[in-house]
Amino acid sequence: MKFGLFGGARARGGPAGDSHAYHDFVNYVIEAEKLGFSSVFLVEHHFTGFGQVSASMSLLAYLAARTERIRLGTAVVVLPWHNPILVAEQAATLDLLSNGRLDFGVGKGYRSYEFSGFCIPPEEATERFDEAMEVIRKAWTSPGRFSYHGKRWRFDNVVVEPSPIQQPHPPFWLGAGSAESIRRAAREGYNLLLDQIAPTDLIIDRVATFRQECERVGRPYDPMMVGVTRGLQIVHNEEERKRAIATRRNVLKNIGDLARGPGAEHYAHIKEDEDSFVLDDAPLLGTPEEIIARLKRLEAGGVENVLFAAPGASVAGLRTFAEEIMPAFDQEPMALAQV
After folding, report:
1. Among residues 314, 311, 309, which one has the least CA distance to residue 250?
2. Kind and range of the H or E element at 283?
3. Domain identity same for 325 and 260
């Protein structure tokens, strides 16, 4: 099993507070690399009021300069809001600066207020996404100048510079939840990002759907092609568990609209009554022994690449995971091995 990070800085409170939040997150990623974590995937969101990362590739470019091995992923660049040529140039530059460590995650977007803020009708999301991907693929695989004439974009005799280090291009990742979108990801050459909300059995079913579709179309399958995000909250006593469950409930209240597929309705409206909240098996919330057991269940279901979204993420939490959980999966933490 390999382990990575998912999410990003949460900056609020004005310029000074925002600066501290971003630099704290950078130090968090640097420590994760030292401890043997293999990747970090950053979100892109706009107009939230919650301080979520809006310029993911800018932050990843800074991380590229501060790290050496950890892979740097977008989760995701929402293509309907961007000029695809500018995206291709920026992503290729990031791949170059990181010596070929970019994982290029893309998506259509789903939050109505973000589409409204950019004055783009949500019903155009799919066609805009598809056209943008056509342009980006052409930009990264054309041997020289090219032209593209589509419904939304027109480019004449252009060349995208620089070229990415990874050839023919950095790995494409797609966030998906429905069976059809998962099969599409397999058919069209995407790796797969799965959310932190779906329960374990549903995650295992989705991984199986992706693997089966890869096999059906003759695409070589590797478990590392699927990244499964899970909430991570390590506790050592019952008082910590109570606080962790309350935190999980608040997380779901904030991101419940992310839910897709069967069971999503369970998260659509978290009741105000705290006593009514029932914790399911999606998050890795518990003692190190309990978390190891849940990870082993995921591993038995074909999951080998787990990304952690940790509320209140801290270097101390990373070290606890590295010392008390990671060794159960034949991964010796790098920093600890050097001591």
Report:
1. 311
2. none
3. yes
Q: Give me the residue label for tokens 């998912």.
A: 6
Residue 170 token pair: 């950095």
Range of the domain at 131: 1-175
Residues 6 or more apart whose CB falls under 8 angstroms from that of 318 comprise: 28, 31, 32, 35, 37
Say yes or no: 282 and 226 in one domain: yes
Q: What is the DSSP letter of 301?
A: T
CA distance 195 to 110: 14
CA distances from 186 to 119, 175, 217 (A): 31, 12, 8
Residue (of 303, 328, 285) closest to 201 by Cα position: 303
Question: In 3-state terms, what secondary structure has residue 158?
Answer: strand
Report the CATH number at residue 329: 3.20.20.30
Q: Could you tell me if 111 and 10 lie in one domain?
A: yes
Find the Cα–Cα–Cα–Cα dihedral 173, 178, 184, 185, rounded to 10°. Answer: 20
Distance CA 39, CA 62 (A): 15
SS percent in the chain: helix, strand, coil, step 5: 50, 15, 35
Domain count across the chain: 2
Residue 182 domain-assigned? Answer: no
Decide if 164 contacts 140 (C-beta within 8 A).
yes
Over the stretch 232-266, which tens digit does the pLDDT of each residue have? 999 999 999 999 999 999 888 877 654 444 445 55
User: How many residues are given for the chain?
Assistant: 339
Give yes or no for a contact between 38 and 3, defined as CB atoms under 8 angstroms apart. yes
Parts of the chain with a pLDDT under 70: 13-14, 16, 256-276, 331-339
Q: Are residues 158 and 262 in the same domain?
A: no
> How confident is the prediction for the chain on average, in pLDDT?
91
300 plus 257 within the same structural domain: yes
CB 238 within 8 A of CB 290: no
Query: Of 46, 47, 42, whose CA–CA distance to 58 is shortest?
Result: 42
Q: How many helices (H) and strands (E) does the chain have?
A: 12, 12
